[in-house]
Design brief:
The protein is 75% helix and 0% strand. By secondary structure, the protein is mainly alpha-helical. Among the domains are: 276-438; 819-907. The longest helix has 36 residues, at 43-78. It starts with a helix and ends with a helix.
């Protein structure tokens, strides 16, 4: 890689020089500028490299110091104690001649020794650099190591030769043949001198030889352009220079000279091109050059030379293909592409074999992976007009790499495992690529997903990170391949179509990988330990997406919600069962989402007025509730108890909601004459459910007794609150019992309201029993007071309904309020209520209750003087005052305020 920048400069310079009819000077100037540009660009990398070496040097010094001082420390700690006596008198007897002074090393010695240690450690641990790093290091060494003066002198000499040729040509001082011959003779003298000095000063000699070869290249090129030599003859002379230079390089073990000669060989047909377009001749010549590189690779592991040949071969070949290739030239082009591909696959294998023992098996990643990549791209361009041409090409390349991997594996060569795995990975990749060229995206996605699952499984079992990453990338590729088919026709056959099967296989592959990550989570890297959660979510999304899309495609709209509920419920049950059997704990928790799904579907059906049991909904909902309780039962050992209580309560709520709606919807719409009764069942059914739960607690230990807070305690509080609100809201309705006659209290609406109030009373009354724990955040007395207030409102509505039905007053708030009969009756009702409260308080000794009754009695008196007094002449008002007065007298006699002491004793 030593001369790549210079070679690029030559090509660009010659190309620009053509504009000024002076390609020779342009090539020379481009060579020099290319070298300088590369050096400037990579100065930063040089500094970073120096800092790295300095750090290694410092660490080596620290390690060396710790090793040398440790024995001394050990001896000092174990030395015997000779006392602390006075030794001043005995100093004269000490033999000074026996004392040896340890010389202190100088700073230069330390630096020299440390440098030796540092370079030894660096050399021992050296691994061949990447091609671009080698290029950078060459330019750095070119301008910083060796005989820099000679190198710059040769460059200046090349410039001088090009300037001399140009100067002489412009002034016609000498015949052009003589000028070129003189320059060639000078180059030959340089070459001979360099050869003679190869043992005395090897670096100097190689610089002279390289410069001489460069001048000879330029001279032949100039001779061809100036029509001194025929282009064909110039081409063969350049070919001879290539062979000669390579021989010199091999004899002297000079990588740079070989690269310089090879670069000149690849540029020769470009520089002396006749524009004949004879690609067979061009590629035959390049095949000859690549055969030479292959021969050198048999003995030398010159990575830069291999990479240089690869670049020139495929870049120039690609440029020719872009400009000149047509399908008619396939038969004369394909063999050369195959030949070049085989060359560089073989060179990559030779490179791994040629490494020293400590680096045996180190692969040239650029060639190992670059060759199939570039080769397949060019092959695809050649066969794009053939049916399944790309599929066969991918299949062939996959087979080649798989066979190579098998052959290397069978030979069991030491250190070749990395190359074997690389070839195996390439084989799998190209075999995978063959699939989309034959099948559509959905089947491709399925194949890639299963393949990725298998590769990941192998990577997990064998602890191969690269295999695991590739398997996961295949999952992503599978999803992209599947989504690329969106908008394509969907299969007419339910379930057995490419869309559903492809999606399900992607889901199964993701779940399989997740399960294996979970089982071997201790054997993978730290970032991968929790990857099974993501893969679980990935697999479930594909599973549910596939099923719901299939339902959407193949079922009528009014069946979709119920079918979706049934599918989701069965899927969660299957996930729970498999999670237990496979030991995958995380797979049990997605079943948590069944309850939210049931709630959402129930609300959607309610919003659109759809009967949940219609269109086979009874199957879906019954199955959903059975599965939900089955999941809750199995989750007793894995979910937190507090979470289970919440989910039991939520399940009870949706059960009450669905049953209430089914009854209300069914009776109001399917029973003749009961169209106005639907609101009644929205309170009656929940109240019946409360009574049922309360009375089944002794029979159903699971789930009612085991989760008593959810079914009997706090969990029922929302239901009780709902019943109270429903009772208040229904009070605003007229309560028409048609087709039945209206009777106070025993009409359907009043019965339902009373039943709701009794359910609330039953719930509170059971708090003190052992089975039903008292809610922690709810106090008994406020709840009883709230129930009493709701009962009082219902009592007033009972009066309003009686006035409406028997007095013919329209059931509107302002008309009922302005009714004299209503005002009279509620005055009596309020007073009777106060009488009952105060009498009960007197008997039980509850002063607070007595004051409540007193407050109500005060409200009655206030009402009489504010509202009833306006029409004191009417009979109803007279009855109001008289009745209230008599009742107050009775209250004062029978229900006086309980004594404080008795109240406390009672409390």
């Amino acid at each position: 890689m030593k001369t790549i920048f210079g070679i690029i400069g030559i090509v660009i310079g010659a190309w620009i020089g053509e504009w000024e009819n002076d390609p020779l000077s342009g090539a020379a100037i481009g060579f020099f500028i290319g070298l300088l540009a590369g050096a400037l660009i990579n100065t930063k990398n040089r500094l970073l490299d120096l800092e790295k070496r300095l750090k290694q040097f410092q660490e080596t010094l620290v390690d060396s110091a710790s090793v040398t001082t440790s024995p001394a420390k050990k001896s000092s700690t174990t030395a015997p104690d000779f006392g602390t006596g006075d030794i001043s008198e005995d100093t004269s007897e000490i033999d000074t001649t026996a004392t040896t002074e340890i010389p202190k090393p100088s700073a230069a010695q330390i630096a020299s020794k440390a440098t030796d240690v540092g370079w030894q450690s660096a050399a021992d641990a050296h691994i061949p650099d990447q091609p671009e790093n080698r290029m950078i290091q060459f330019i750095k060494r070119f301008f910083t190591t060796g005989n820099v003066v000679v190198k710059v002198g040769v460059i200046l000499l090349i410039f001088g030769a090009s300037f001399l040729i140009r100067y002489a040509a412009e002034r016609e001082m000498l015949p052009v043949e003589l000028r070129l011959a003189a320059i060639a003779a000078g180059a030959i003298v340089m070459l001979i001198l360099g050869w003679r000095l190869r043992f005395k000063n090897a670096n100097y000699a190689l610089v002279l030889q390289g410069g001489a070869v460069g001048i000879l290249y330029l001279t032949v090129f100039a001779s061809a352009k100036l029509n001194v030599l025929p282009l064909t003859l110039a081409f063969f002379i350049m070919l001879g220079l290539v062979i000669f230079s390579c021989l010199l390089a091999i004899l002297q073990d000079s990588r740079s000279l070989a690269m310089f000669a090879t670069a000149g060989g690849f540029l020769a047909p470009i520089l002396v091109s006749t524009d004949s377009g004879n690609h067979v001749a061009l590629f035959s010549y390049y095949a000859f050059l690549n055969a030479g590189i292959f021969g050198i690779a048999w003995y030398k592991s010159w990575r830069g030379l291999n990479w240089l040949g690869f670049l020139f071969t495929f870049i120039i070949g690609s440029l020719w293909g872009i400009e000149y290739y047509s399908p008619e030239k396939f038969a004369t082009t394909e063999p050369f592409l195959i030949l070049f591909f085989v060359f560089y696959v073989a060179i990559a294998i030779l490179f791994a074999h040629q490494q020293p023992p400590r680096l045996k098996g180190v692969v040239d990643g650029s060639l190992v992976f670059g060759t199939p990549l570039v080769g397949f791209v060019l092959q695809s361009a050649l066969v794009q007009d053939f049916a399944f041409g790309q599929a066969y090409s991918a299949l062939g390349m996959g087979a080649i790499y798989t066979v190579l991997a098998a052959a290397l594996w069978q030979r069991q060569v030491d250190g070749m495992r990395m190359l074997t795995e690389s070839f195996l990975a390439l084989g799998v990749i190209f075999l995978s690529l063959a699939i989309p060229f034959v099948l559509d995206g959905r089947w491709t996605a399925a194949a890639w997903a299963l393949e990725g699952a298998g590769i990941t499984w192998v990577g997990i079992r064998q602890q191969r990170l690269l295999a695991r990453v590739f398997g996961l990338l295949l999952q992503i590729g599978a999803s992209l391949a599947f989504f690329s088919t969106i908008g394509h026709p969907h299969g007419n056959l339910p379930v057995l179509n490419s869309d559903y099967v492809g999606s399900v296989l992607i889901a199964i592959a993701g779940l399989f990988i997740g399960l294996n990550y979970y089982r071997h989570r201790e054997a993978v890297k730290e970032p991968e330990k929790d990857l099974h959660y993501l893969l679980l979510a990935w697999g479930l999304l594909w599973w549910f997406g596939a099923g719901l899309m299939e339902i959407d495609y193949h079922l009528l709209a009014h069946y979709e919600l119920n079918a979706s509920l049934f599918f989701i419920a069965l899927s969660f049950l299957l996930a729970t069962v498999l999670a237990r059997r496979l030991g995958w704990t995380a797979a049990e928790f997605p079943a948590l989402f069944l309850l939210p799904v049931m709630i959402i579907i129930g609300l959607i059906q309610y919003y659109y007025g759809v009967n949940p049991f219609a269109d086979l909904g009874f199957i879906a909902w019954i199955a959903a509730f059975v599965i939900q309780y089955r999941i809750l039962h199995r989750a007793a050992g894995s979910w937190r108890h507090s979470l289970l209580e919440k989910w039991h309560a939520g399940t009870l709520y949706i059960l009450i909601f669905i049953l209430t709606w089914i009854v209300a919807h069914g009776i109001s719409r399917h029973v003749t004459g009961l169209q106005n009764w639907d609101h009644i069942f929205w309170g009656l059914v929940p109240a019946i459910m409360v009574f049922a739960v309360m009375n089944l607690k002794s029979r159903l230990r699971w789930p009612i007794t085991e989760f008593a807070p959810a079914y009997l305690g706090t969990g029922l509080l929302p239901v009780i609150i709902y019943l109270g609100i429903w009772t208040l809201v229904v009070c605003t309705r007229s309560g028409d019992p048609s087709p039945l006659p209206y009777y106070p209290v025993i009409n359907p609406q009043d019965v339902a309201q009373l039943f709701a109030l009794l359910a609330a009373i039953e719930w509170v009354a059971n708090w003190k029993k052992e089975v039903i724990p008292e809610p922690a955040f709810v106090q008994r007395l406020p709840v009883i007071a709230a129930i009493g207030m709701v009962f009082f409102v219902w009592l007033n509505s009972l009066v309003a309904h009686g006035v409406h039905f028997y007095a013919g007053v329209p059931y509107r708030a302002w008309q009922i309020f302005n009714s004299d009969l209503f005002q009279t009756v509620i005055s009596i009702v309020w007073t009777l209520t106060a009488f009952l409260l105060m009498g009960l308080a007197n008997r039980l000794g509850y002063r607070k209750v007595w004051f409540t009754g007193g407050a109500l009695l005060g409200a009655v008196v206030l009402k009489l003087f504010i509202i009833d007094l306006d029409d004191s002449g009417t009979v109803t008002r007279i009855i109001s005052f008289m009745s209230v007065g008599i009742l107050m007298l009775l209250i004062g006699y029978f229900s006086p305020l309980p004594p404080r002491s008795e109240t406390r004793a009672a409390e």
